[in-house]
Amino acid sequence: MIPLGRFYLFIQAPAGKGKKLEIVELAKGTSLRSFAGVLESRGIVSSARLFALYARIKGGDARVKAGYYQLSDGMRPFEILDKMLAGDVYQRIFALPPGYSMYQVAEILEKHAIFRKEAFLAACRDRTLLDQLGIDGSSVEGYLFPGSYNILPGRTEHQVVREMVERQLKVLKSGYQARAEKAGLSLGKLLTLASMVEKEAVRAEEKPTIAAVFENRLKLRMRLQSDPTALYGIRAFAGKVSRQDILKPTPYNTYLIAGLPPGPIGNPGSDAIEAVLSHPTVPYLYFVARGDGSHQFSSDLTAHNAAVHKFLRSSTVSAEAP
Description:
By secondary structure, the protein is mainly alpha-helical. It has helices at 4-12, 32-41, 48-57, 60-63, 77-86, 102-111, 117-124, 127-133, 157-175, 177-182, 187-200, 207-219, 227-231, 243-246, 270-277, 301-311, and strands at 21-26, 67-72, 93-95, 148-150, 286-289, 295-298.
């Protein structure tokens, strides 16, 4: 027989001073008695027996939600149970913005203490995983779906990369693959062009026009001369490049190589992919940033040079200047 005074004191009193923080999983099918034992062993509650009794009195056995919970020893038992009854599960949300490269993704994950940067990048390049996912390239670049992810404790870098890729492949195969093949584009080339459009465009409405410029230049065998390609794998693209940047030899630098880079330079969203497949017919061969997020498009070199002189400082170069 448990004295009522002790029982009520237990409900109201935390086990500690809030210095211990634990992420604890209540797996589906796990009894509250067993879960209470885990809480006691980790110092979150002072008595597994009393917590299980309290939960049973409150009808918790049938009402608590499975999942991961972030709990501290500074929480009172009734607060812990309320959290579980409400299904207030622990979430570690990570958002992958459209256009971000796998290098940027790795840096964000490390900053949020989810994965180490190099470990995530190693998973992105793992040949076995690439083969399993059907990716011919040297990494998953371009195949990571821009969106939100809840990265639960215990998940590995490989599992998260697989989830990101499978979400992108689902979108590609359901809405774009057949259209890309009709246009003579492999998925790799589609994503490469779309990643360049995504990196170049600030305003969504300009993506189709930028895609059209790239196609016009490819048809004329002109170098694409896209600023973000010169910086890929070296540093983040910030909208401006120096002359030293565009002269740096890399496999991706379209100032120095002909045609498309060997693979995507980021992970494009659906609107950039759509822009590549359904852009308008335009006469433009050049564009230059105006400095307000928009671009000045030109059909001939004379007009383009005038736009470059107007909008760019001498320390930078245009996105598509020859």
